[in-house]
Every structure is written in C-alpha cells, then in structure tokens.
Design goal:
Helix content is 38%, strand content 18%. The protein has 281 residues and is an alpha+beta fold. Strands 1-8-5 form a three-stranded antiparallel beta sheet, with no helix packed on it. Strands 4-7-6 form a three-stranded antiparallel beta sheet, with no helix packed on it. Strands 2-3 form a two-stranded antiparallel sheet.
C-alpha cells in the first residue's frame, strides 16, 4: 500500500522500496520494529508536525497543599533529605544540611515541552466592578466614536505591563526525563480548587493519528534506516558471489544508507524543524 496507515504497512512499504518481493530483504522482524520506533521517535522529537500545542488543566487539591506546607511555604525541587560535610580553604570543616520537598505535578509521558504555566488568577489588577478593563469598556469603548483604536491598544498594553509587574508569571522547572513540573511559588498564594493551565507540546500518537505513518519524512527516513540495517547485516558476506555472477556488496549498501539518512536529517533540520526561539531579557 502506497499510503500506509499502520506499522505493518509502513514496514512493508519500506521493504518494497528496497526491492521486495523481487529481492529478499535480510532484516529481522525485531530489527524492523526497532527501526520503526527510531523513525517515529525522531519525528516526534524534531519534526514540526510530530507534536501538537496543548493546554492541560491541573486542579490543586488540599492534599497537595498540605504536603507542600508540611515542610515550608515554598514548592522546591528534590527527592531526598541529605547531610554532609565539606572542607573550605582557610575555614576548616563546615557542616551543611539541605532539605528538598517531594511536591511536584506529574506530567504525562507524551508531553515533550512546557512553555509556561498561566497565572493562578486572572485578576487584571482587580476582579470586581472596579476592574480597569470593565471601567474602560463601560465609560469609553461603549461609545466607539469617542475613543481611537490606537489609544485603546496603548492602554491595553500598559495594563498588561502593569499586571505583569504586579503579578508576574509563575517560575517553573521541568525536565522531560523526570516528567515532573516544579513550581517556584509561595504555597500560601494557592487554594484548593485553583487550576493551573499548562501550555505544552504533546507528541502525536500514531495509533490515534494513523496519518503519521504516511508522512513523507517518516517513509523516506524509515526506508533509509532499513537500507542501512540491511547493508550492516550483509557486510560479512563481502565479496561472496551468487549464482549468475551477482556479487554482494553490503558495505556499499550500508554507506548509501548512511548518506541518505544524513541528507534526510539535514533537510528536516532546514525545512521541517521549528527554529529555536531567542532568549530576550
């Protein structure tokens, strides 16, 4: 099938590209499964269409707050409590003790990147009738002819800057290999029932979105990986002649696969990978 929608169909597509069923592709099924995983993992990690922008909601529970406040007001990183000694030149031996809380939010495995956690409140300086946005719409924007759009935009930008200074975004720390989201905030600023809105990127699961198997990059990259593995398996038969004078050249096949993989990865980096954002500040 030219449009694979399952792992098996993608595996058969790659073998046909290398000559099956006319030729016997000397790659074990276990190796094919590994190559499929490698191709999908790279697609999800680096390809712009391998992830989706998501907003996850997490509810703060009383148990979470109780565990947080048991040791202190801050949510801090860590797993264990340790003690130790160290020598400082000219001072002698100094003892130190550090404590690290185990309070964190467990993040799903499919999440590969977290951009930010939205504020626990949306006060915009105040949340009642005296809210500046409310008063602005009530007194000025209602009469559209009495206020220029440019003035309105400038006022909104000023309010956003003021709100950012008074209520900055929550500091977070996250590592993909841990799947733990730590919040560097004062626990007293949170209440049970509050919600965190987490802006993140989640991997596309091919089982839920079978069109992933038909992606042009996936098909080409998997075929190149398959060629490289085939050549590596056949290297030990270098110079062996088959009936009819055909000579096996596993090393050449391996080198061709390596060069194709490099070209595909380079093209993906230039065309299909999201550029890194500059750090400003």
């Amino acid at each position: 099938m030219a449009n694979p929608s399952t792992r098996q169909e993608l595996a058969e597509y790659g073998k046909r590209q290398l000559g099956a069923p006319v030729l016997e592709i000397n790659v074990a099924d276990e190796q094919v499964e590994d190559l499929l995983d490698d191709a999908i993992i790279l697609y999800q990690d680096r390809h712009m269409e391998g992830v989706e922008l998501m907003y996850l909601k997490h509810k703060i529970t009383q148990d979470f707050l109780d565990a947080t406040r048991a040791r202190g007001d801050d949510l801090s990183i860590g797993i264990t409590t340790s003690t130790g000694t160290t020598n400082i030149t000219g001072v002698g031996t100094t003892s130190f003790v550090f404590e690290e809380n185990q309070n964190f939010i467990q993040i799903p495995d499919a999440v590969i990147g977290i951009e930010r956690v939205f504020k626990l409140d949306n006060r915009a300086i105040s949340t009642n009738m005296f809210n500046i946005n409310y008063q602005l719409f009530l007194n000025d924007v209602y009469f559209f002819s009495s206020m220029e759009l440019l003035s309105y935009v400038n006022v909104k930008k000023y309010l956003e800057d003021l709100d950012f200074i008074l209520h900055p975004d929550k500091a977070i720390r996250w590592n993909r290999r841990q799947n733990r989201l730590y919040l560097d905030v004062d626990a007293s600023s949170m209440q049970a029932g509050d919600h965190l809105i987490i802006r993140c990127y989640r991997m596309l699961d091919p089982n839920d979105f079978p069109k992933v198997y038909n992606d042009r990059f996936i098909k080409r990259y998997f075929t190149a990986l398959l060629k490289k593995q085939w050549g590596q398996n056949m290297m030990k038969f270098q110079g062996v002649k088959l009936p009819g004078g055909v000579e096996l050249n596993g090393r050449q096949m391996y080198e061709d696969g390596v060069s194709e993989i490099q070209a595909i990865e380079e093209k993906m980096n230039n065309e299909f990978e999201l550029p890194p954002l500059d750090m400003i500040g």
